[in-house]
Give the backbone structure.
Amino acid sequence: MDLGVEHVEQRVATGPLPAQEEIDDLVARALTHATPHGEGAVADYIPVLARADPALFGVCVVDVDGHAHAVGDTQAAFSVQSISKAFVYALVREHLGHDVVADRVGVNNTGLPFNSVMALELNGGHPLNPMVNAGALATTALVPGASADEQWATIQAGLSAFAGRPLEVDDEVYRSEAATNQRNRAIARLLESYGRVELDPLAVVDVYTRQCALSVTAHDLAVMGATLADGGVNPVTGEQVVAADVCRDTLAVMATNGLYERSGEWLLEIGLPGKSGVSGGIVTIAPGKAGIGVYSPRLDPAGNSVRGQRATAYLSRALGLNIFASDAHVPTRGSHR
Ligand code: GLN
């Protein structure tokens, strides 16, 4: 995957973020870096998504002090889609604990598209991880609540707490996906047949479809990501949304599968947990530092925003975020070298 950042100086992830003005400058440069890449296609398998303006492009960084650095269309609304999977996973993980969720939903990469039925069949009906549809449906089924309405209320309140403002469903997107989501209904039925979903599978799909239709902006994604970067405390509202160990687990599952079958390439190039959605958003987390939200609707064949990946790659390098990057340590007095 060539994201065109070979020329960007690689800073290492240890140490603080650059000064505020420098972050502003680098966010603007990330947008300029990625803007020429008008390739890719807007998703159209959910009919209403095909109407998105492909020219929209916004990049936002929110640091763990709650400072926002935004350039471009960071207030443009779009449906959160698959990015919701990461945050619903966090809510369920908070409620049920590490072991139960790891057992029920799995953590390994499928190597297959997000809506793969084969991934489920090849794994004896056990979903592989919560970042692809089978595992995400199994996760939504585990959301606390005595009814689908109560589960939905938990999700809407939880994702709103991550964003620090009330998030609403885009009804047009919800209706468009609800009318065309036969494949997700089939996956839910298959989960039911394997005893992996105990609720009415169609009710689970309905709640999942609503969570995907929640309307967000690139700025919201950056705040949501910054909350996962900040031990679960929303750095803008100060609310503890989930526990720090829940963030740790959430970032691990995002790292292994946040960009579907391109997750390995993403980790190699960007070195951070991220989650993309088919409407063109990507949220990326630099633990202890910041969240990055990007939005640009044109996608690569795996369903990941083309410009969004480029802008994030630029920022990972230029802001020193790649968690795998290190410089040789300068030996200090008393060192064993
Ligand atoms: N709601 C979409 C689906 O389930 C989300 C997919 C995505 O963003 N990759 O098909």
